[in-house]
Structures are given as C-alpha cells and as structure tokens.
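Researcher: Let's continue the batch. This sequence belongs to Inner membrane transporter RhtA, and it's 302 residues. Same format as the previous ones, please.
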Amino acid sequence: MTARGGQGSAASLVLVGLACQEIGASFAVMLFPQTGPLGIVMLRLAFSAIVLLVIARPRLREHTGVAWRSVVGFGVVLASMNALFYLALERLPLGVTVTIEVLGPLTLSILTSAGIARWLWAGLALAGVVALGAGGWDRLDALGVVFALGAAVSWAFYILASARVGRQFPRLDGLALAMAVGAVIALPLGVWQAGPALIRPDVLALGAAVALLSSTIPYALELVSLRRLPASAFAILMSLGPATASLAGFALLGQHLSWLEIVGIALVIAASIGSVLAASRRASGARNPGPDADEPLSEPVG
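Model: Same format as before. Here are the structure tokens for Inner membrane transporter RhtA:
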C-alpha cells in the first residue's frame, strides 16, 4: 500500500467513525431522562468492552508492566473523557458541546505541527469551530462549559494514550482491555445514577446501540487510523466533529443550523482536507506505512 493510499484509507475510517459517534451521541441524549449522563457512560463502556473482548480475545500474558500501565492509563482516559462529555451534553446543545471539545485535539495538532502550513490549517479549523458554535454561545451553561473543556483535555490525552497502546498491543487487544478498565471505573457512579432503569430491556437495547455507535466502532477505526496517519493530521481531521454533531443534532434532535454554522462546517472541512493532503505529501517522501497492525505511528507522540 502506498503512503497516499494508506493515509487516504485511514482518513476515511476516521470520517466513518465520526458519523457513528455523533449519531450515538444523539441517541444518548434521548436516554438521559432514564439513565442520566453517568448511567449512559457506564452502559456505553460496558457494552463496548464486552463486544471488544469477544472480538479481540486479548492475551493477558506476555505483556510488560509498562504495557499494562499504558492500558490502565488509557482506561482512565476513556472513562473521564466520556463522563465529562455527557455531563456537558446534559447542559449544552450537541453541536456546541462537540465544538468546545474539539479544542483539545486542535491544540494538540498545533503542538505537534511541523511547518507553517500546519499552523494555517489549524487556524482555519479553529475559525470554523468558532463560527460553528457562534449560534449557541449565548445559551451556554457555565458548568457545562467546564465539563466540555475537561472533555477537550481528555480528548487530547486520548489521542496520545491510544497511539501508545496501539504500538504496545497487537490489533485491538489494548483497546479491548482499556475499555474494560474504563467500564469498571464507570460502574459505581453509573449504577448509582441510573438505578432500576438498568434492568429495562428498552434502555439496555438503546444503551447497546449507543455503545456500538459511539465507542466500539469509532474507537476501533481511530486506533487503526492512528497507526497510519500522523498525530497532527489525525487531530485536525477530528475537527470535523462539530460538523457531524450539528448534522446529527439537526436530523435526530431537531436542532437547526444557521448560515454562520454552515460557514463553520465549510471551514472545518477545508482545513481537514488541507491537513490530510499536506500529511500525504510529506509522508510520500519519507516512508510508506504498511498494513501491518503492529506498525507504530508514522511520527511518534507521547
């Protein structure tokens, strides 16, 4: 596989994961009255862990202490990122929540950038994020903003932690183990907040759907993508989150888009395309990422 083809397919996987993630977030909002945000976090991580453990069947032996610490750290990041995101989503619109959250990977993209072009695409993406959220800033809840900013920081740590685990464990083994760790962390508060709703078949069915759409599919696709796509390109590509979130909010939650928000979507898409093309040109002269699942990132992070 050529460098351009490998990075193009990796970018496609990220986009599919984003679409699934925001549809799942919309379903989660519908479950809040029954489970609360922490209840849906527990359901999301628990169902995702079960599915991934069955699929990956990870080996528990032959791993170093450093690798296990990476898995535990990844699990903590998964639990905190999801909890903070849903706590924010309880108080803020979907598009605004994701808009604030995406500041985490955007900041990481700037810190890991090399060359003036990276700063250009990061600035363009940031302008799109600001424009996309412009229609909702007057409705912001202060605590919701704090939760969303915490989710942004957690998302940046997620990129670093998932890349590290992807290098230390084959295939989806590390992700499956980390998801199980995250589910255990989320279990006490989830049971406390959701209570009897956890034994209702309809709630469990929707919780499983949220897990597949919001965790299992996107995280698996992103982990594979991070082995072929530079961290900076991945981070800017993930800035499409506000666009997919706003579209999902419009289609599933009845949240309409203003012209300024549409402009924001266009700016974010332009920045993402520019980022991927720039990464492709740079990588084509350096090395060709292969399809081997054990291959590390094209540029080291963390």
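Researcher: Any comment?
Model: The longest helix spans residues 3-56.
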